[in-house]
Structures are given as C-alpha cells and as structure tokens.
Design goal:
236 residues, 3 domains, transmembrane helix, membrane
C-alpha cells in the first residue's frame, strides 16, 4: 500500500515538473519574440532616419529649383509685358522696323492701333504706300499731309517721287519749299541741280549737306560726286 502511495506521489511530482517546464519554455519564447520585434522596430526607425537625412536636402533643392523656375517665369512674363508696353509707347519705331523687314502686315496693324484722325497716321500710311512702291497713293497722301505739317521727310519723299518719274523740275520746285537745315534735303537738292545741269548749285548743296549726313555710305557717295563735279568744273 505504501509502495502504491509512493508511486502516485512520484507521478504527481513528475506532472508538476512537466507543467513547470512547458510554462518556462513558453515564457522564454515570448521574451525572445518581443526582443526580435523590438530590434526590428529599432532597425526600421534607423533606416527611416537615414533615408530622411539623405533625401530631405534633395527635396529642399527640388523645391528651391521649382521656386527658381517660377521666379524666372514671372520675370519673363514681366519682361514681355514691358516689351508690349514699349511697343505701344513707341509705335513709330515698331512701324519703321516692320517696314525695314518688309513686314507690311505688321506695319498696317500699327497704323490701325493709332488715332485715324491724326496727321501722323496720314504720313505713316503714305510711307507704307511708298515702301510698297505705290507712288501714286503715297504722293496723294503726302501732299495732303504737308499742307498741315511742315515735315522735311515728307517733302523729301514727294520730291523723290517726282524724281523717280523723271520730272526733275517739279521735284526741284517741291524741295525748294523746305529750308536748308536737313542734310538729306540738301543732298537731294544737289542731285536735282546736277540732273538739271546746274553743277555749281549742285556742288554748293553737296558741300553744305555733307557735314550733316550721318550715314557713312551716303557720305562716301557724296564725296565722290563732289570730286567728279569739281573735276568737271576744273576746280582744284
């Protein structure tokens, strides 16, 4: 009987040890997983920190570049607006630059943007026709214009039109209406006098007009004319 009791007691003790061992193993396993989770969390935090550390400067630079592009665009738009204002305020310059480029459409658009009743518009229309070699319309508008404004350029153009027609008398008559302060007019008067055979008068106009001319090519041509006339007149 005592042996049976001892055996049962021994079995109970072994069961207790087994339960204790299982719980201990389970506890140890739980601690190990917690440590792993903690280590993984630390590693993730470190990686995120490193990524942020190296990438934020790039992001800042990208933002700065974007702002710079935006500022450049704003500056460009400002310059365009200033240029458009400059064109509006300097329509005459834009008109003549269009004529030089033979952009007659742009030149016509400039005229349309002006006050159609002003004398200046009449002159610009005449100049446009002149540039298109429509001398008939140009002469008509110019003759109307010079009755309102004493403009050496307009008178010079009218004289040139008569000159191109071969009507040197009318060209000379027209150009004599203007004073002697404009270099181009003086040179043209010299050309007309030369055409009419009055070499001494031509020489006088050429010599008076030469110092007033800024264009080097025209100056060179006038100097040649002066030399040839002096040679013809026997003047040293």
């Amino acid at each position: 009987m005592s042996e049976l009791a001892n055996a049962l007691k021994k079995i109970k003790q072994e069961n207790k040890k087994a339960k204790f061992s299982y719980g201990a193993v389970k506890h140890v396993g739980s601690l190990t997983l917690n440590k792993i989770y903690f280590i993984v969390l630390i590693l993730i935090t470190i990686l995120i920190s490193l990524y942020t550390y190296f990438k934020i400067p790039d992001f800042d630079r990208m933002v700065k570049d974007y702002v710079s592009v935006d500022e450049d665009r704003s500056m460009f738009n400002k310059k365009v607006a200033e240029y458009e204002k400059f064109k509006r305020d300097n329509l005459d310059s834009y008109f003549y630059s269009s004529l030089i480029k033979k952009d007659f459409t742009s030149a016509s658009n400039v005229i349309e943007r002006m006050d159609n009743k002003s004398a200046k518009v009449e002159k610009l229309k005449a100049v446009l026709y002149f540039a298109k070699n429509d001398f008939t319309m140009a002469k008509s508008l110019l003759e109307s214009y010079v009755q309102k404004e004493k403009d050496p350029t307009a008178i010079n153009l009218i004289s040139f039109i008569y000159y191109s027609y071969g009507d040197y008398v009318k060209a000379n008559k027209m150009i004599q209406k203007e004073g002697l302060k404009d270099g181009n007019l003086l040179i043209n008067k010299g050309m007309l006098a030369e055409r009419l055979g009055d070499l001494r008068t031509a020489l006088e106009f050429y010599e008076k007009g030469l110092p007033l001319i800024d264009n080097d090519v025209i100056k060179y041509k006038v100097k040649i004319k002066i030399k040839s006339i002096k040679l013809a007149l026997g003047i040293q």
